Amino acid sequence: MNILKFFTAGSVDDGKSTLIGRLLYDTDSILADQLEALQSSNRKNDDGTIDLAILTDGLRAEREQGITIDVAYKYFQTEKRKFIIADTPGHIQYTRNMVTGASTANLAIILIDARNGVVEQTIRHSYIVSLLGIKHVVVCINKMDMVDYSETVYSAIIEKYKVLAQQLKLADVTYIPVSALKGDNIVQNSGNMDWYEGESLLHFLEKVDTDNLDKSQLARMPVQWVIRPQTEELHDYRGYAGRVLSGTFNLNDKVTVLPSGASSTVEKIEFFDQTPDAAHAGQSVIIHLKDDVDISRGDTIVNASALPQESKLIEADLCWMDGRALDTSIMYNIQHNSKITRCKISEILHKVDINTLEKHAADEFKLNDIGRVIIKTADALAFDLYDDNRANGSAILVDTRTNLTVGALMFRAAVE
Amino acid sequence: MSTYNFDYLDELEAEAIHILREVAGQFEKPALLFSGGKDSITLVRLAEKAFRPGKFPFPLVHIDTGHNFEETISYRDQMVERIGEKLIIGSVQESIDQGKVVEQTGKNASRNALQTVTLLDTIAKYQFDACIGGARRDEEKARAKERIFSVRDEFGQWDPKRQRPELWNIYNGKIHKGENIRVFPISNWTELDVWNYIRREKIDLPSIYFSHERDCITRNGQLMAASPFLNMDDEDVVERKQVRFRTVGDMSCTAAVESDATLIDDIISEISASKISERGARMDDKVSEAAMEDRKKGGYF
Q1: How much is the ipTM here?
Q2: Quick one: B87 exposed, middle or buried, by C-beta within 10 A (0-12, 13-18, 19+)?
Q3: Rounded to whole angstroms, how far apart are CA atoms A120 and A12?
Q4: Homologous superfamily of domain range A2-207
Q5: Which of A72, A326, A330, A360 is most buried by a 10 A CB count?
Q6: Taking CB atoms and an 8 Å cutoff, what residues of chain A touch B273?
Q7: Both ends of chain B: CA-CA distance in Å?
Q8: A265-281, pLDDT tens digit by residue?
Q9: Which residues, in sequence order, are CB contacts of B93 under 8 Å at separation 6+?
């Protein structure tokens, strides 16, 4: 059994919370006392049934306003898989929450209201999915019950969406007609849409290839912590602790340590009481090197035959996440895995209108703005391009005045 | 290319180890809050996997309400001896004796709320800048929205509207003096995940997690262990029951469930089939719909 992390964005009226509530409800993931609290709540659907949306509204302010204002994580599992849902609000003022929720997902669900078809927010949500490089997209055409389960309506919507998907280079898109409110095609295939030959949403989620395991040769491990017991029997012990971001390290592999450029060989890999022959993407291990090289937190151990880029000048997509606008005259901290260094945004190349996908020149960057910038760092970063290696191609910006996380960066190119 | 099996528990474990090492790397004076419950026991195992053969870069901190199950305390002391790490105890009784908090009265009196003050005092006394805890997002809907690195102000308060965005696997641990960060390495685990992990790792637990006979009373529809810490009167009928506990907290606020589960396998099948969620056995969440959110804002874990 493995884990599928998926992301949903939606607005108040398109039934996203109902869809998630339905997935939880129909997979028996709601326990008796939670259900009781749900039934005793004042919020009901028009026909008196339980309003499943309440399941995902966590904070009091959200319940009072009937909206989702933050990222909520929900968990359920079936016999086949464990699921982690990042549930985010879909309105433009919550773009930063969507970017946050999308950053860890390997699948996105885009909801389209069958009555309205592809609208501005569909474009916005799909753009964020493409920006954050989510591999799989499921487009749920929801509220099919409100359009008499019409195949014609459904087909017209997908034709329109295909144009958008092509424009955004979304490679793997699956379409499913559903009614979250009535439960059609969510867990069970619906008897109301015999013309639909595909799977229900849950069945699709259970079998989609998650590709959690990075098959690339880009072996990377940022060093988080150096383990030196300095006891009598472990006098010379020196282990580099970290999580393999991507690729695989095998015993005797030639490696390079960045930024120093020192070369060495993998002598031993440790995982608690085990000494495996290899460390793979996703695993948290301890690596020992044959040579005595100077390594500390913030350094990265990489495959010597597939080096990352190294640069102090990087072109990146930026999503601004703070109420205080970007100030190109001050220094920020950039945090790239375990490495933190000073940086400046030296140029704003363009901003994107995420409702229309039009690019335009800009000299300011405010909350929820997304666009392309050039960033200049104090120390060179050892990075990969986001599209090649998400884990080593992303970073955050921290405002040193407030310590807040103010920007999300996706590296697109090293500037020569 | 070699193939390998990396299942969901391996992935959750690797994520938690990564988070613990980020705490070690980013903070000057971290601490691991240890309650004696299964979630914090799991954290200790994860810390061993993160830092052995080195020492933990943090002490364990136990906020002792004085109303503990004795099984929890003896478990704690044995464990600390086995792992050879430092234990700091913050005592609620001491806070009461110092007049910093006042013991609740009445039938439902509990020291659960008082421990917030002791916790904040302990954090201030040792100047901890990060406190690792075993809270999980599946426990409760306010927790579902909390970050893995969650900033607390000087007063221990959590402000749900001012949470930092947390992207990819990058955790921003920068804080101002006086603030601290609560870190939740097992945020993405469910109750069942924790039990499956405990089974897989063959981790010992305090005996109260398993079925045993105990004198209980029924209060507000829940089974409570009869103890000197519970204010009882003539209306309370003491009955001998076969029970176990699903969480380990203060004796006056942790309800038992009737159960014959004596082995971990029994517990896992019981939970899989259970119709009551874990926090459903906590009387402290029952006060209002927003009970947890309010307590978190006030500095509760």
Answers
A1: 0.92
A2: middle
A3: 14
A4: P-loop containing nucleotide triphosphate hydrolases (3.40.50.300)
A5: A72
A6: none
A7: 44
A8: 999 999 999 999 999 99
A9: B64, B66
